[in-house]
Every structure is written in structure tokens, then in C-alpha cells.
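$ run holo --ligand "nicotinamide-adenine-dinucleotide" --emit C-alpha cells
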Amino acid sequence: MNTYHISVIPGDGIGPEVLAEGKKVLDRVAQLDGGFRFQFTDYPWGCEYYLKHGKMLADDGMDRLRDSDAVFLGAVGYPGVPDHISLWDLLLRIRKEFDQYVNLRPVKLLRGAPCPLKDVDRASIDMTFVRENSEGEYAGSGAWLNPGKPHETVIQNGVFTRVGCERVIRFAYELAAKEGKTLTNITKSNALNYSMVFWDQIFKEVGQDYPQVKTYSYLVDAASMFMVKDPGRFQVVVTSNLFGDILTDLGAAIAGGMGLAAGANLNPERKYPSMFEPIHGSAPDIAGRGLANPLATVWAASQMLDFFGHPDWGKRLIDAIEAVLVDGSVLTPDLGGTATTAQVGAAVLAKLEG
Ligand code: NAD
Ligand code: IPM
Ligand code: MN
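-- output --
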């Protein structure tokens, strides 16, 4: 029987609470299928580990992860450890070292999910963000000069390489072509006169190979406005690292909230493991109380099943999430309910079994 080896990093805050449910759901899928199974290896890495050991993960941590088929991650970051340390040393490190250059984030309003927009055609909120995930504004290039002096200076460089832009843009075109969808490019080339002009140029160049894909280009400020006023304009969307980060939280807001937003960090060549996670953080404001919504994590599990070549199961998980939402009797407080994280996890299992 095929065994998928999954490295689990529950991480901080609500991370362990939501991942516990994600693992149960994957186990049940494997049981129901009968043709594959999951073997989970849990790693205690995160902010608590940092406070004990002075590092976010073990010295051989990346090597241990490298041997698995995927990483399943909860959330990283907690008060007491500076965010730029915890995130750079764990989450961003994994994305970069494993060349997970595609961050695939669905923004789809399921039936039963709350939407704050007025007079919107609910079915029109159905997009897939392809976020560049390895460089750009997150390249980590810069300097902090003359700290504490009157002429203290910081420099944060955006780094956009031809290879880096081309590969993620091509991935987005391929996806749009495969799904028969439009592709929207979101940049800011009126102000960012090097990086985004270059990106737009590559968007055009790569597009010559996909004459069948209808494209649109928006500046990010206008795109944010249209996501609220007229979300039906967007189908497949491609953006740089930072814009994709921001726009997908906006996307979460119009598609049911942070408790429903998932993301896949993909190394499409499968040279390294890909990583699946809810896009929300560790939510210190609600951590440890069973209040966290695990549905984003279940959605990330669905993305993992898609990536492993089980799109039928991926879809069945989304259907199960939708069934829980439509039923409406077992929901966490962010969705207006009173159920706990574990009760919602159990409700997903019940719907899955039908
Ligand atoms: P956050 O996503 O943790 O929380 C924002 C708001 O959404 C909070 O009110 C929180 O209660 C709510 N929320 C988030 N997930 C929820 C869920 N599953 N169910 C119900 N409510 C949920 O963002 P933040 O407060 O800006 O960041 C907290 C910490 O997490 C910081 O250290 C930050 O750097 C880190 N962070 C980590 C990741 C990650 O690991 N992928 C992502 C974003 C932020
Ligand atoms: C996300 C998060 C991360 C990002 C942070 C925690 C570094 O916000 O996955 O959306 O900006 O990519
Ligand atoms: Mn984010």
C-alpha cells in the first residue's frame, strides 16, 4: 500500500489545535479509500522550542523534512519571540530552501460561508491566487546601517529574477489554460518602475505561448477595490510575494474569514516536499481555548490530496466543509457558532462519511 510520509509542524498558538483535526481528517480519508495511508512525524519546532533551545528547529531539521512527501504546518509566531526571527527561521526558510515558489491560495465562497459584501453574486467569488513565494519583496536582501546614529539607514531590496518571475507566471498561465479560466496579473508598475515593469514584461512574453488564455492586468490598488466591489472579475490571479500575501487576507475576508483560508506552498518539480497550511497565523488572542476554526486546515489537507494525485478526495473534503457550513449547527465562534475546534473536526468526519 502506498504510504505518504508527512512531516507535521503544529507550531504555535492555535497551530496544534487545528492540525490535530487536519490529521484526523487525512487519516479518515485514507481509511475510506483503502489504497493509501499516512504516516505522520510530528516535530515540536516553533517559538516554545526557540525559547528552550535558542533556535526555531533542530540543526538537522531541514534534512529530516527533506525526506518526507509533504510538510503539514499549523502556524508560526508568538509574542515573546520577534516575528521576523520566528518566521524567517522556520516558515520562510522552508518555503525558500525547498524552492516552494508557487503559493496556491483558493479564494472561493462556499455555500453557507458568511460574506460581508452586499449585493454580490456569491458564485462569482471563485478565484485562485498564484502568489510568487520565493523572492520579490521577501528576498531578505538589505542592510541596517549606522544603527542608533542620527543617520541610521535601512534598505529593504525587492529582488525579481527572470527565472523567478517566469516560472511562477508560467505556472499561472498553465493553470488558467488547463481550467479554461481568465488570468489576471496584479502589479504596481506605475510606481515600482523596475521590479513591476520587468514583471509585466515577462507576463506579456510568457503569454505569447498561451494565446487561448484571456488576460487582464490591474494595479494592486485598483485590484483591491475591485475584489470588494466586483470580485467576479477575478479567476486565476498571479501576483508578487507581498501583494499576494495582502490580497489573500482580503480574499479570506470576502470568502468566509481567516478560518476558511488555505494555501499550498508548491515545489512543482517535486524535487523537494511541498508544504500545506492554513494561511492564518497563530491567533494568540484565541489560542488554547478550543475556539479556532479548523476548516482552513482541512482545506489545506484537500490541497495536499490534490497534489498527491487524489483530486476526487480533494473535492470530497471541500464538499464536506461545505456541508458543515450549510448545516450550520456545528461552527466555531468566528462563523457565528458555539462549537469547539474538535467538534467541527468531528462534524467534517461525519459529513465525509455521508
Ligand atoms: P492571525 O491570522 O493569527 O489572526 C488574525 C485574526 O484572525 C485574529 O483575530 C484571530 O483570532 C483570527 N483567526 C485567525 N485564524 C483563525 C481561525 N482558524 N479561527 C478563528 N479565528 C482565527 O494574524 P496576526 O494576529 O496578525 O498574527 C499572529 C501571529 O501569527 C504573528 O506572530 C504572525 O507573525 C504569525 N503569522 C503566522 C502565519 C503562518 O504561520 N502562516 C501567518 C500569519 C501570521
Ligand atoms: C502568510 C503569512 C506569512 C507571509 C508571514 C507569517 C511571513 O502572512 O503565509 O500569509 O507573509 O507569507
Ligand atoms: Mn499572510
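-- notes --
The mean pLDDT is 98.
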